[in-house]
């Protein structure tokens, strides 16, 4: 029964992708190790390292060079797959160059979240430049007198390359002596993937899987909610952007006790200097909002005083 289920799953992945999931399933079903596959390929005059196979299998990289595509075609034979079953999932060659993943004004992800690299490597996070966020919306509800401190997020994403099947989101954990971490409490319009917290680097990373792989230019919406730690008073909130252009909206709602003032600030790139500082109007209902039609790469944040 288990074998039949695995075969059905492999057949489904060969129809829908993504490439790395189909390859992983096919290798697992074959029972062959990566070393054995490399030996079989080498015997046919095709040279591929175990590292390359591992990267293809977990989505860290994709075969694109002619020698790599030749290896994929031979893998189909070794794994007993129909001709071009894996090659078809690769689609067209992914665009190259800075303009694809790094438009003018962009900042590399690792520069904004330098401590996240080990965690992302462990999760085999997809490379930068596969997605652009057309809009990002945050709704933050803060009640310091009860068990309510939640962040609701709505993302509108556009694929920049072919067969993009996931997106990753990042949150920095508040420096909390109780070592409490954010909790992902809801996901809509996507499937929850892996969620990892690293207290040593104060990082929280979540993966969301699209219902189907997106082709270049296609768009998807993801909504999720995070319950934030409560042990220390909250007096600020910020979001970081690796690339310019997105519409960003922030709605803040303070329940019960209201702060004396709320102030917006921006930071450019990796700069630590506050720019565009302005006070935000806090209404009688304890609400305020912020709309940035086109963010720049860097940080948009608010801080308040109780």
Give a structural overview:
The radius of gyration is 22 Å and the shape is elongated. The protein has helices at 2-16, 19-30, 34-43, 50-58, 66-78, 87-90, 98-101, 109-112, 117-122; strands at 131-143, 148-159, 164-172, 183-188, 191-198, 203-214, 219-227, 236-241, 247-254, 261-268, 275-280, 287-292, 298-305. Helix 1 packs antiparallel against helix 2 (19-30). Mean pLDDT is 83; it is low at 94-100. The protein is built from 9 helices and 13 strands. It folds into 2 domains: 2-90; 102-305, Immunoglobulin-like, CATH 2.60.40. The chain is α+β, with helices and mostly antiparallel strands and 306 residues long. The strands form 3 sheets. The protein has a 6-stranded mixed beta sheet with strand order 4-7-2-1-9-12, with no helix packed on it. Strands 8-13-10-11 form a 4-stranded antiparallel beta sheet, with no helix packed on it. Strands 3-6-5 form a 3-stranded antiparallel beta sheet, with no helix packed on it. Helices cover 25% and strands 36% of the residues.
